[in-house]
């Protein structure tokens, strides 16, 4: 029977005594197992460097010969600055020590010395943090030293020493947890080896090898939990197995005004497959703005209605609801499919009638905001819920429906792929479909970042586009958390533009208008009665007016990257060349990075990646509220591919009967047992 290192008190490691156990406790370490699991967060690199290969500001280690007499300046009794000339690779540099004048006597001209410090390329200065004399005492030159996150009286030196000791005493007892086949498949180090190298890598490559193994392990175990959970729930065939009429769906698709892209076909096939299964679909459809998600959703809704069920399409705003209703009507009309719009602006009477029709099954597809899933909305037979943009179909919504005796398939669509995918992959409870290509013939949008001083020229640009018969959006300055001020801004800009373009109609759209006012202005913009639309960000998602070719964003540096990309996605939807002009304060540094990202690329996946980079994943998810797992070694962003891999591997493993019975998987099953997979609540 193997020794459980987690049951072994950390005081078993020699040298952990006195106040040390208490100091380790502050880091959450009480057992040997926990100590070994306390990984360094980076390495200090003492590899000798060549001065011609380093950059200004790098922390480097070099070897050289002392070539002068040390000069010491004292400040008060203890503070000092000491300099000395050193020859490194036939270059004269100045080594600078602070408060280390006690080293003076050791600095004899002609002696060899190894120095670690921060390199100032311009002045050829090295500000020293560590000094070694070759041949004297223990050397760390040429090694990588782990750096731990420590508090209180603990030192790096003590931690390094103690880890070494712990590995020496207990390293051999570290058990393997990954199945041999996975170790082989990915050429991963055995756990024992990886742990040793993680704490004391011989080289950066070895450290990376070790990290790769531990990242995989961490993500695999996490995903195993998810996938096992999911597999156990999948068997509960409590969804609707839709008898999909494939020929009818094919005919529907053929009748569309365009041919589906290969991606759209693929994704639709995945959805149709899910619809026919007895378990509930929970699928994410991600695709860049303009990739054509709506028509895929419409085809799925069509399939569900043809199999005798109802569908619901949920969107974040009323404008979008109205737009989707119109496009669904266009597509469904020839088939006699009844649609309806359920929004907050219905009168009580209208609402009552609508709810009654829904319950009787007189309405096939209902479009609306989140009001759709409220407590008093009943369906006769709800088969599919599609949600468009931004809102994840949450746990609560599903349980509301369950209570009403419904367990529909769910399709969630999003145009901000990576962050969402990260989240979903992390939760592991959704299947993901991706639209990888845009419909053919789209011209990339040309994006320019300009300063407020160039406003006149921007107005000239608007005039040029509009006089050529196109239309423009102008998004107003954003004042965070004050809708009232945003509205005021929009009103001001609207007045200015009306003055600047007396020959055109300039419309105004903002969140304080009633739904019918908004609807009317959108209708006018869609039909080109209005040429320039001034708007707050209510316009942001999903709006589709192909004749508009220009998107102008005021205060662009105040918007997030994904939001800017969404805004830009409002143009470039037709055959004409489109433009996006971002007016940004050149003094805003973060803003500058965002403008650069926007002008660099049109690819939403790339934008989302940069967005994460700029915000940092912690920011992005607001880690605490998101409930996203925090990993010890893995990083949700940089290790995303491994996460996906681990997810597939875990899914495959739990599908195999021998996983649930075979002796070689006993420890993994025990792990699942410990994680309460078998007794926990249902996934939602
Ligand atoms: P999004 O993925 O941003 O929701 P939409 O569904 O609004 O994109 O589609 C954008 C535009 O592209 C719409 O006008 C739609 O009719 C059109 N479209 C969708 N699929 C195709 C296709 N395969 N070929 C040509 N145009 C398409
Ligand atoms: Mg859309």
TrEMBL record:
<protein>
    <recommendedName>
        <fullName>ATP-dependent DNA helicase RecG</fullName>
        <ecNumber>5.6.2.4</ecNumber>
    </recommendedName>
</protein>
<dbReference type="InterPro" id="IPR012340">
    <property type="entry name" value="NA-bd_OB-fold"/>
</dbReference>
<dbReference type="GO" id="GO:0003678">
    <property type="term" value="F:DNA helicase activity"/>
</dbReference>
<dbReference type="InterPro" id="IPR011545">
    <property type="entry name" value="DEAD/DEAH_box_helicase_dom"/>
</dbReference>
<keyword id="KW-0347">Helicase</keyword>
<feature type="domain" description="Helicase C-terminal">
    <location>
        <begin position="454"/>
        <end position="613"/>
    </location>
</feature>
<dbReference type="InterPro" id="IPR004609">
    <property type="entry name" value="ATP-dep_DNA_helicase_RecG"/>
</dbReference>
<comment type="function">
    <text>Plays a critical role in recombination and DNA repair. Helps process Holliday junction intermediates to mature products by catalyzing branch migration. Has replication fork regression activity, unwinds stalled or blocked replication forks to make a HJ that can be resolved. Has a DNA unwinding activity characteristic of a DNA helicase with 3'-5' polarity.</text>
</comment>
<keyword id="KW-0547">Nucleotide-binding</keyword>
<feature type="domain" description="Helicase ATP-binding">
    <location>
        <begin position="274"/>
        <end position="435"/>
    </location>
</feature>
<dbReference type="InterPro" id="IPR014001">
    <property type="entry name" value="Helicase_ATP-bd"/>
</dbReference>
<keyword id="KW-0227">DNA damage</keyword>
<keyword id="KW-0413">Isomerase</keyword>
<dbReference type="Pfam" id="PF00270">
    <property type="entry name" value="DEAD"/>
</dbReference>
<dbReference type="Pfam" id="PF00271">
    <property type="entry name" value="Helicase_C"/>
</dbReference>
<keyword id="KW-0067">ATP-binding</keyword>
<comment type="similarity">
    <text>Belongs to the helicase family. RecG subfamily.</text>
</comment>
<dbReference type="GO" id="GO:0016787">
    <property type="term" value="F:hydrolase activity"/>
</dbReference>
<keyword id="KW-0378">Hydrolase</keyword>
<dbReference type="InterPro" id="IPR027417">
    <property type="entry name" value="P-loop_NTPase"/>
</dbReference>
<dbReference type="Pfam" id="PF17191">
    <property type="entry name" value="RecG_wedge"/>
</dbReference>
<keyword id="KW-0234">DNA repair</keyword>
<keyword id="KW-0238">DNA-binding</keyword>
<dbReference type="InterPro" id="IPR045562">
    <property type="entry name" value="RecG_dom3_C"/>
</dbReference>
<keyword id="KW-0233">DNA recombination</keyword>
<dbReference type="InterPro" id="IPR033454">
    <property type="entry name" value="RecG_wedge"/>
</dbReference>
<dbReference type="InterPro" id="IPR047112">
    <property type="entry name" value="RecG/Mfd"/>
</dbReference>
<dbReference type="Pfam" id="PF19833">
    <property type="entry name" value="RecG_dom3_C"/>
</dbReference>
<dbReference type="InterPro" id="IPR001650">
    <property type="entry name" value="Helicase_C-like"/>
</dbReference>
């Amino acid at each position: 029977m193997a020794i459980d290192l987690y049951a072994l008190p950390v005081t078993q490691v020699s040298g952990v005594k006195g106040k040390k156990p208490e100091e380790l406790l502050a880091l959450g370490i009480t057992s040997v197992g926990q100590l070994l699991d306390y990984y360094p967060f980076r390495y200090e690199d003492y590899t000798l460097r060549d001065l011609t290969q380093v950059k200004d500001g790098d922390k480097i280690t070099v070897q050289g010969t002392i070539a002068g007499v040390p000069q010491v300046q004292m400040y008060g009794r203890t503070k000092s600055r000491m300099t000395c000339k050193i020859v490194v690779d036939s270059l004269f540099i100045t080594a600078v020590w602070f408060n280390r004048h006690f080293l003076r006597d050791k600095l004899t001209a002609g002696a060899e010395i190894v120095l670690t410090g921060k390199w100032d390329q311009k002045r050829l200065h090295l500000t020293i943090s560590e000094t070694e004399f070759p041949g004297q005492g223990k050397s760390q030159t040429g090694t990588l030293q782990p750096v731990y996150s420590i508090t209180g009286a603990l030192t790096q030196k003590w931690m390094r020493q103690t880890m070494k000791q712990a590995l020496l005493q207990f390293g051999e007892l570290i058990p393997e947890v990954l199945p041999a086949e996975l170790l082989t498949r990915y050429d991963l180090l055995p756990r024992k080896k990886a742990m040793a190298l993680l704490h004391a890598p011989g080289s950066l490559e070895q450290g990376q090898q070790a990290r790769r193994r531990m990242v995989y392990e961490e993500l695999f175990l996490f995903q195993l939990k998810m996938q096992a959970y999911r597999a156990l729930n999948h068997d509960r065939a409590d969804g609707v197995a839709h008898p999909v009429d494939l020929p009818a769906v094919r005919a529907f698709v053929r009748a569309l005004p365009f041919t589906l892209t290969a991606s759209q076909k693929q994704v639709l096939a995945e959805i149709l497959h899910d619809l026919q299964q007895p378990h509930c679909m929970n699928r994410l459809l991600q695709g860049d703005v303009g990739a054509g998600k709506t028509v895929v959703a419409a085809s799925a809704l069509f399939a569900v209605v043809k199999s005798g069920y109802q569908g619901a399409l949920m969107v974040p705003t009323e404008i979008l609801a109205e737009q989707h209703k119109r496009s669904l009507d266009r597509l469904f009309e020839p088939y006699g499919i009844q649609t309806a719009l359920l929004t907050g602006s219905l009168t009580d009477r209208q609402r009552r009638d609508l709810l009654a029709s829904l319950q009787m099954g007189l309405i096939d597809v209902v479009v609306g905001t989140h009001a759709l899933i409220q407590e008093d909305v009943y369906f006769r037979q709800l088969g599919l819920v599609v949600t468009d943009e931004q809102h994840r179909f949450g746990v609560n919504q599903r349980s509301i429906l369950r209570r009403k005796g419904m367990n529909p398939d769910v399709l969630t669509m999003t145009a901000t792929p990576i962050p969402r995918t990260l989240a979903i992959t992390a939760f592991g409870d959704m299947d993901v479909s991706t639209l990888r290509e845009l419909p053919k013939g789209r011209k990339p949008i040309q994006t320019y970042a300009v300063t407020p001083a160039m406003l006149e020229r921007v107005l000239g640009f608007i005039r040029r586009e509009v006089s050529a018969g196109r239309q423009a959006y102008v998004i107003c300055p954003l004042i965070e958390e004050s809708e009232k001020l945003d509205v005021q801004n929009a009103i001001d800009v609207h007045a200015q533009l009306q003055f600047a373009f007396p020959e055109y109609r300039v419309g105004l759209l903002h969140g304080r208008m009633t739904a019918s006012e908004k609807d009317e202005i959108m209708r006018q913009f869609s039909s080109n009665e209005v040429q320039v639309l001034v708007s707050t960000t209510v316009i942001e998602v999903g709006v589709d007016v192909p004749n508009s070719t220009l998107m102008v964003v005021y205060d662009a540096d105040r918007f997030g990257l994904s939001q800017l990309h969404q805004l830009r996605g409002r143009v470039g939807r037709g055959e004409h060349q489109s433009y996006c002009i971002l007016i940004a304060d050149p003094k805003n540094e973060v803003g500058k990075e965002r403008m650069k990202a926007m002008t660099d690329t049109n690819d939403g996946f790339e934008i989302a990646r940069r967005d994460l980079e700029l915000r940092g994943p912690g920011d992005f998810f607001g880690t605490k509220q998101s409930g996203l797992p925090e990993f010890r070694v893995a990083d949700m962003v940089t290790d995303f591919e491994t996460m996906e891999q681990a997810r597939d591997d875990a899914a495959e493993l739990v599908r195999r009967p021998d996983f649930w019975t075979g002796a070689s998987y006993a420890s993994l099953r025990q792990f699942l047992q410990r994680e309460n997979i078998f007794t926990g609540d249902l996934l939602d």
